[in-house]
Amino acid sequence: MKSTGASLSVKGLKKSWGPTEVLTGIDFDIEPGGFLTLLGPSGCGKSTALRLVSGLDEVSGGSILIDGKDVTKVPADQRNIGMVFQNYALFPHMTVAENIAYGLKVRKVAKPVREASLERVAELMSLGPLLDRKPAQLSGGQQQRVALARVLVSERPLVLMDEPLSNLDAKLRTEIRSEIKALNKSLGITVVYVTHDQSEALSMSDTVVLMNAGRVEQVGTPKELYDVPATVFSARFIGTPPMNLLAVADVSLPDGVAASYGNDPADLLIGVRPESMQFPAGGADYSASCRITSIEYEGSVSLLHLTSKSGASFILSHSGDTLPSLEEKITVGWTQSAAHLFSKRTGERVLTSS
Ligand SMILES: Nc1ncnc2c1ncn2[C@@H]1O[C@H](COP(=O)(O)OP(=O)(O)OP(=O)(O)O)[C@@H](O)[C@H]1O
């Protein structure tokens, strides 16, 4: 099953339903064989963007290029795109084998070729022993694997997946996640994936397009989004528990940071990830005095829920052996490199000269 992925370029994509603009002009690009995820909260427009790329809905503005060719006005069935959705709708009266090979049969692919493709994909997806069963005789995870196999066997250079794992339990999600990723790499197909689950996005993607209210908040590799969030929204959306954001009044800053910020220092928000905060604070560049309000034991770490001088809540992920006690007043710290500075007013990351 050789397959070479297509490139995809989305430019200024807009969609309105009546007077409501649900996509306000989004841009992203993906190289052949890449894995790009549209990530964002419910209702931000991820599925809408995917449906426009697939051709199921018409754009209100902007363009879609596949392998450099403008397909914005090309009907869905001529875009050569494979799709897997959350409700994977297998044909109940057909066996697994018939379901998988259905698309090839419709396209009048010769029987020996069909059979060879089926055998190959069944092996890849470990579906061999299930080929004669009907969908009702499969578990949810097995049905999802059949839906994926059906798309993979079709050898489309571009595959769109809309929350394909959302019906599965946590263990299966993790298993199928890595299967999808491995298939993306071994077959070279280009994948555009939609999810609201950040851990799914971070673990699978080469590129993440983080969306918020119909626009793109940030585009980058998973590491870029985690290490250098461009906005307060990115900082809070990526990472579990989310990044802490503290007002200047609650933090003791290194000399010069506030002064080097051209604007009113009270506009600064100091971001720090729970896992980058240290207790005890010894030698840290930034520090904050606080009180421990609760302690959540999570096995490898304990989450210390803290309250700042001004009453703001934040979290420190503590991996040390000795735990402080509840209600104890402590000082926590973090290094310059773990500090993320944002403007409260614009929500954007700001750089200081220090
Ligand atoms: N056919 C439609 N008519 C009117 N509004 C629609 C239509 N389809 C989607 N919308 C609206 O567009 C917005 C974006 O929806 P979309 O399904 O793209 O979001 P999403 O990010 O995929 O959300 P979810 O993760 O919940 O699926 C929502 O406010 C939704 O109500």
TrEMBL record:
The keyword Ribosomal protein does not apply. It comes from the Bacteria. SMART domains: AAA. Gene3D superfamilies: 2.40.50.100, Nucleic acid-binding proteins, P-loop containing nucleotide triphosphate hydrolases. Its EC number is 3.6.3.20. InterPro entries: AAA+_ATPase, ABC_transporter-like_ATP-bd, ABC_transporter-like_CS, ABC_transpr_MalK/UgpC-like, Mo/tungstate-bd_C_term_dom, NA-bd_OB-fold, P-loop_NTPase, Transp-assoc_OB_typ2. GO terms for cellular component: ATP-binding cassette (ABC) transporter complex, substrate-binding subunit-containing. One of its GO terms (molecular function) is ATP binding. Keywords: ATP-binding, Hydrolase, Nucleotide-binding, Transport. Pfam families: ABC_tran, TOBE_2. It is an enzyme of class 3 (hydrolase). Residues 8-238 form the ABC transporter domain. PROSITE patterns: ABC_TRANSPORTER_1, ABC_TRANSPORTER_2. Belongs to the ABC transporter superfamily. This is sn-glycerol-3-phosphate import ATP-binding protein UgpC. It comes from Boseongicola aestuarii. The gene is ugpC_8.
